[in-house]
Amino acid sequence: MDDTAFLKIQGLRKSYEYVDALRGVDLTLARGDFLCLFGPNGAGKTTLIKIVADLLKPTSGTVEITGGPDLDSDIRSRIGLISHQTLLYDELTARENLQFYSSIYQIPDPDDKIDSLLHTVGLYNRREERVSTFSRGMQQRLSIARALINDPVLLLLDEPYSGLDQFAATVLSNHLKKLHAQHRTIIMVTHNLTRGLETADRIGILSEGRLVYLKDRDEIDLPSFEDHYLMHMETN
Amino acid sequence: MGATLVILRKDLLIEIRRKDSVISMIFFGILLLFVMNMAIGIGRKVDPELAAGILWISILFSSVLGLGRTFSLEKTNRCIDGLLVSPVAPSSVFVAKNLVNLSFMLISEAVIIPVFFALYGDNITVRLAPLLATVLLLNFGFSSVGTLFSGITAATSRNEVLLPLLLFPVITPLIAFTVKATGEIFAGVPFGEYSSWLRLMAAFGLIFSCAGYLLFDYVMKEN
After folding, report:
1. How close is the nearest chain A Cα to the Cα of B22, in Å?
2. Structural domain boundaries, residue B18
3. Measured between CB atoms, which of B6, B77, B85 is closest to A100?
4. Is residue A183 a part of any domain in this protein?
5. B chain contacts of residue A101, beta-carbon cutoff 8 Å
């Protein structure tokens, strides 16, 4: 692994019984990169996120994540995951959910951090209410707070804008920009071109299990990118 | 151990709020006792071996209800992904879920066993210490196997059907040891004559608790 790489994916393949979800993905990210991956349904985006998060074993290939000298040796404890599922317990209150996750991440004296995150996502006044009483948008906002409880250096987002109202989507975009400015490494997969292009600094397209496009955002001519993306949507 | 206690506390808190697992276990267990009591004949004395079979049928069938729900909690909203992404070892999840199942079984047995004695206790010698040892050893073995298979079947869409199909063939030896030991306890036989059954039950529990602890990493992650 070269010195500047934070995350290196080599030859990643994932095959299910009848489908090849990933067909040899190679990707290197430096620390602080924010990669947004677009792609049609079934392109392998969620599979890629799950493998990087160590939720799924690849058929072949490797994913290496290095913390670097100034980070904890256990980099896995500094990964945050936001997906279209909230990963929250319906019968617990907003605060209890965050307390649970702060306990399993062994965060010392988490109360101030929990309060601050609840303020950030606009749920402080409803902190003692059960998640089952929340709307989909509120649950997703709480899920953002949950993913940030361990101060992640690598944030994985799988369709994070799905089901979000305008307020929650703006909270998420602002928070992602803030995390990016703090030099966190972020991988986001989404269908939302506007949000993705607005926040990320590297843009990729995954199509039929292959990374068919990868450029810095500064190099991209946005109208031609949209045409390029639509072409892959049609051929998939 | 910290993560185990955190997960255990969370699951018990959720059960206190939902109350569905333990209440359905107790209700189903008592229902089975009443149905068998009517089939045998209300007030008719039963011999100790048959009584032992009736007791464990009620407890084991009702306990399966609780097992199936242990992981359904984690499947909702994919909470299991939150645990797997975290630094919590899958073995800690196994220990926590095993303790949750043991707690649910103990609570339901605290209600089912007195009802059993009220219905079938006429011809039975009540010796509390050996019966308690048998209950604890059965719970330990059943919960260890059950937690392991509950984790395996949680990833499937029909886990409530699949779980008993996988579970009961594997725990058949444990059921046999338990029924033999309990029958002899109810008959008032000296401890030395049934202690070998208790040792076999302990061995069964130890083997499957170790297997679950070691294999749970493979069980929890998708292939």
Report:
1. 16
2. 2-220
3. B6
4. no
5. 82, 86
For chain B, what is the domain count? 1
Tokens 């402080």 sit at which residue?
A: A124
Q: At what angle do helices B128-153 and B90-120 cross, to 10 degrees?
A: 130
Is the CB of residue B1 less than 8 Å away from at least one CB of chain A? no
**Pick from A55, A77, A91: CB nearest B84:** A55
Q: Within 10 A of B219 (CB to CB), how many other CB atoms are there?
A: 19
B84 touches chain A (CB under 8 A): yes
Q: How many domains does chain A have?
A: 1
- How near does any CA of chain A get to the CA of B78, in Å? 5
Q: What is the domain extent for residue A142?
A: 90-152
Any domain includes A28: no
DSSP classification of residue A134 = S
The CA distance from A211 to A203, in Å, is: 11
How does pLDDT run across B65-110, given as a tens digit for each residue?
Answer: 888 888 888 888 889 899 988 989 999 999 999 999 999 999 999 9
Handedness of CA A107, A111, A116, A120 (dihedral sign): positive
* A-to-B residue pairs, Cβ atoms closer than 8 angstroms: 77
List pLDDT tens digits, range A102-158: 999 999 889 999 999 999 888 999 999 999 999 888 898 899 899 999 989 899 999
Residue A106 domain flag: yes
Give the per-residue pLDDT at A73.
Answer: 55
The side-by-side arrangement of strands in the sheet containing A20-30 is: A20-30, A5-15, A60-65
CA distance A89 to chain B (A): 7
Structure tokens at B127: 């010796």
C-beta separation of B65 from B27 below 8 A: no
A33 occurs within a structural domain: no
Amino acid at B155: A
